[in-house]
Amino acid sequence: xxxxxxxTGGIAAYKAAELVSRATKRGFDVRxxxxxxxxxxxxPLTFEALTGHRVxxxxxxxxxxxxxxxxxxxxxxxxxxxxxxxxxxxxTLGRLAAGIPEDPLSTVWMALPATVPSILxxxxxxxxxxxxxxxxxxxxxxxxxxxxxxxxxSKRLACGDIGMGALAEVDDxxxxxxxxxxxxx
Length: 185
Known about the structure:
Elements: E1 2-7, H1 13-25, E2 29-34, H2 44-51, H3 72-78, E3 82-88, H4 90-98, H5 104-111, E4 118-122, H6 126-130, H7 132-143, E5 147-149, E6 153-156, E7 162-166, H8 170-180
Helix pairs in contact: 1-2, 1-8, 3-5, 4-7
């Protein structure tokens, strides 16, 4: 099962490496797309070592495109059978909701076929999570029928606050991926 994992620049980005490791053990073939901010938390080499695949990020050297397309982001969007962004920051959430593809991750996600299940795992400060625009964007994306939201959990956050906003537990995200993936029957 081909899983495309998007990683954005929240402090929870380090948990994406654990998600990749566990997903590969569960039978997923994983490729990773990073935002520029994500590379400040976890480097592409970590994900390349865990997946055996090249990572796509704003600083990635352009590779030869796959035969499916001569345009790299289209080729990446055609590859997965399921897609997930974990963690999903408020900034990337806003770009997805507004339809503004301005980096490799949002560009690939905008090009994903509607048939590819897309799981979004927000993670941010409690006040950001509770902001009306974040809640509106989440509702709108979920109402499109193209996205499944795995809500954050309440715990002590990196900023020291205690409240809703921490990335869901890796095992919980993985279980959603296993359940939502179109496994062969």
